[in-house]
Specification:
Layout: H1 10-24, H2 28-37, H3 42-50, H4 69-81, H5 91-102, H6 105-117, E1 122-126, E2 142-146, E3 149-160, E4 167-173, E5 187-193, H7 194-197, E6 202-207, E7 215-226, E8 230-231, H8 237-273, E9 275-276, E10 279-280, H9 285-313, H10 319-343, H11 355-363, H12 372-383
Parallel strand pairs: 1-4
Antiparallel strand pairs: 2-3, 3-7, 4-5, 5-8, 6-7, 9-10
Bound molecules: flavin-adenine dinucleotide (FAD).
Amino acid sequence: MQFSEYGLSEEQRALCASVRELCARYPEAYWRELDGQSAYPTDFIRALTEGGYLAAMIPEPYGGMGLGVTEGGLILEEINRSGGNSAPGHAQMYIMGTLLRHGSEAQKEAYLPGIAKGQIRLQAFGVTEPDAGLDTTNISTTAVRRGDRYLVTGRKVFISRVQHSDMMLLLCRTTPKEQRTRRTEGLSVLLVDLQQARGHGLEVRPIETMVNHHTTELTMEEMEVPVENLVGEEGQGFRYILDSMNAERILVASESIGDGRYFIERAVDYANKRNVFGRPIGQNQGVQFPIARAYAAVEAARLMRDRAADMFDHGENPGQEANMAKLLGSEAAWLAGNTCMDVHGGYAYAREFDIERKFRETRLYMTAPVTNNLVLSYLGQTVLGLPRSF
Ligand SMILES: Cc1cc2nc3c(=O)[nH]c(=O)nc-3n(C[C@H](O)[C@H](O)[C@H](O)COP(=O)(O)OP(=O)(O)OC[C@H]3O[C@@H](n4cnc5c(N)ncnc54)[C@H](O)[C@@H]3O)c2cc1C
């Protein structure tokens, strides 16, 4: 079936077609096998890197494609729509939100060309902590300056792809909580060289999850980071990280939309082919209407994603649009996934059908990178001006 490509330029359509072509070399059996072995898609990530796609958002002078989050989103959407999973490679794109806007020229020159060539992997984004949870401004991992180094001590949890990355963008505290004047002040962003840090103050413990996600718990004990790896100004890190968070919400919304389109395509195909009671199951409105409803939800979420991405690429702050895109995208994908499960009856549970794997994978985006409850409280309190609950 055909999905709308309304609003896409010729170049964007060509980009989608070339990603689709690449993904066709990595069919669902590839992802199923990795899922069964909890293995990282090394070949696929290499192919994406060699195709330049993971450097889509890196400006051309540094060796990237010089495209925006709009195109980044289209790439991830196509991967998920093909039956694959973008998560093992998506962080490089959203981390660019902070690095491009707030990194120094020296940092960009030091890292971006290497990232664009695939020599440096910047795939880890360290924010979540066990004792702070979603209350990000309450984190306790602390960086103390000693001469030309920061010594970082603390714990992070659910930090993904650390074992498949050379660098990590880390949010930590540089001003003690009691000394800050505002909740959002006193946090800083550091670029951590993971190869150097591992075994020298950094311990990494893998966490097994219901999805093949390669996430870990980090323990840092006086982990050394050179001061030149501070991104922007000390104490302003929360503001900087929001640029990555907005990009992340837009990109995750795109992955959800790709999942949603995948589920709808699979549901329609099966509902047309499967005959029970002497007719295709899709002839029953009890089967047909949920697919149609999910389709409408996915396409509507896509419009919000397009608006958020467009604003981001024009240098605006799409806080509410990025959050709404993430909320609507993850809910629509979940609805489409649940519907696809229903449509497939018992076969939905058979691994070889891939629906249950995609169903598990898409569920993550209701929770990460931020839960939908927190999106709703942001919309209620910050956008609509309702009383604060925290
Ligand atoms: C597979 C996976 C990969 C991840 N990768 C990364 C990563 O690479 N980097 C990273 O930094 N983090 C990562 N995360 C962490 C993820 O962003 C967090 O799990 C998520 O933000 C929720 O935090 P928490 O688990 O501490 O939930 P909590 O903060 O403990 O919240 C628990 C529940 O309570 C609800 N809740 C809490 N407070 C409120 C409130 N005031 N109002 C309403 N509801 C509330 C939440 O919505 C949630 O449902 C990952 C998580 C997973 C599962």
